[in-house]
Design goal:
TIM Barrel; binds phosphoenolpyruvate; 8-stranded parallel β-barrel; alpha/beta; binds manganese (II) ion; 341 residues
């Protein structure tokens, strides 16, 4: 249910609506819009009687929201969510490029890579300190030490940090350093983790599970938002199909559909989808053409020596080429052009 308030509704009218919603045992979510405020209601298991709410002063309309996802949906919030992350706007007209190695490997690697990526035009820095690896024998990340290195890389470059939390125990530690907490594909349905991420208040980049449907993906985002954290970024990173020439299949058709149904920013990760660096740039081009608000790509000064995901990781020369191509595509899709360097 969505309660639309009049443009001139007084604060006491808003409070009265929220109090009644709470009295009904439900949760109100105030959602300011460009011209008027709306109050979303979650928590009901059966239909709510709209008449109890529509008669309150300041209420203009009560709309039933029938989709299973509520807070993530444009039914509740028609205008795009634009997040400002350490000065970088995501979800508006700018295209945001998040780049960096799969994992933080060492201080030298991370700080130097961050500096080069910044020079080449990256807007945010990625790098895992805690890594979800398919094999327990593979490099698991530097943990706490990796977070310290990420903090140094941010201090050296000013680039905001995107890094993953694998478990509820780690969220607070990761949140101390991260500007954006990543929840990986393998954890998309870890509901305890989603709830903790929802309570921590930091922006969350939620990767689509490799076998997750559209509805499951948005309901995972709904878990984070229902805890009061509306700063969610959706990331398509490839799904598992019968196609066997790439690691996963990049589901680009989900991009316009996510943008149609949801107000949240959408980022595409072509690196994990491809699993091979030679097709990352064309996929990245296509993602922007399909309407993504940004990209997340793996880049490393010496990808063949990378401790994780080397085969899909761009060299810095390839990253430079990607940025050059984006400078042509971004204005063609009527987004703000990236600064020329
Ligand atoms: C990553 O970003 O390095 C990663 C592990 O991604 P995903 O969860 O999409 O596999
Ligand atoms: Mn990776």
């Amino acid at each position: 249910m969505l309660i639309v308030m009049k443009a001139d509704a007084a604060q006491e009218d808003i409070n009265r609506v929220c109090d009644l919603v709470r009295d009904m045992g439900l949760t109100p979510h105030a959602m300011p819009g460009p011209s008027r405020l709306a109050i979303g209601i979650t928590g009901n298991t059966e239909p709510i009687d709209p008449d109890r709410l529509s008669i309150l002063p300041g209420v203009i309309e009560v709309i039933r929201v029938t989709r299973p996802y509520k807070l993530t949906s444009r039914d509740m919030k028609p205008d795009n969510t634009v997040l400002t992350i350490a000065g970088v706007e995501l979800g508006g007209r700018d295209i945001v490029v998040i780049a960096g190695p799969c994992a933080v490997e060492s201080r030298e690697q991370m700080v130097e890579t961050a500096q080069r990526l910044k020079e080449l035009g990256a807007h945010m820095l990625r790098g895992g300190a805690f890594k979800p690896r398919t094999s327990p024998y593979a490099f698991q990340g530097l943990g706490r030490k990796g977070l310290e290195i990420l903090a140094e890389a941010r201090a050296a470059t000013g680039l905001p940090i995107v890094t993953e939390a694998l478990s509820t125990d780690e969220i607070d530690l990761v949140a101390e350093v991260a500007d954006v907490i990543q929840i990986g594909a393998r954890n998309m349905q870890n509901y305890a983790l989603l709830k903790r991420a929802g309570q921590c208040g930091k922006p969350v980049l939620l990767k689509r599970g490799m076998a997750a449907t559209f509805e499951e993906f948005l309901l995972a985002a709904e878990y984070i938002m229902s805890e009061g954290n509306h700063k969610v970024i959706l990331c398509e990173r490839g799904i598992r199909t019968f196609s066997d020439y790439s690691r996963f299949t990049l589901d680009l058709s989900v991009v316009p559909e996510l943008k149609r149904i949801s107000h949240l920013p959408v980022v595409v990760d072509p690196s994990h989808a491809a699993g091979r660096r030679d097709i990352v740039i064309p996929l990245a081009r296509a993602a922007i053409a399909a309407g993504a608000d940004g990209l997340m790509v793996e880049a490393h000064p010496d990808p063949n020596q990378a401790l994780s995901d080397g085969p899909q990781t761009l060299s810095l020369e390839m990253f430079d080429e990607l940025m050059e191509e984006l400078r042509m595509i971004v204005p063609a899709v009527k987004r703000n052009s990236l600064p020329t360097l």
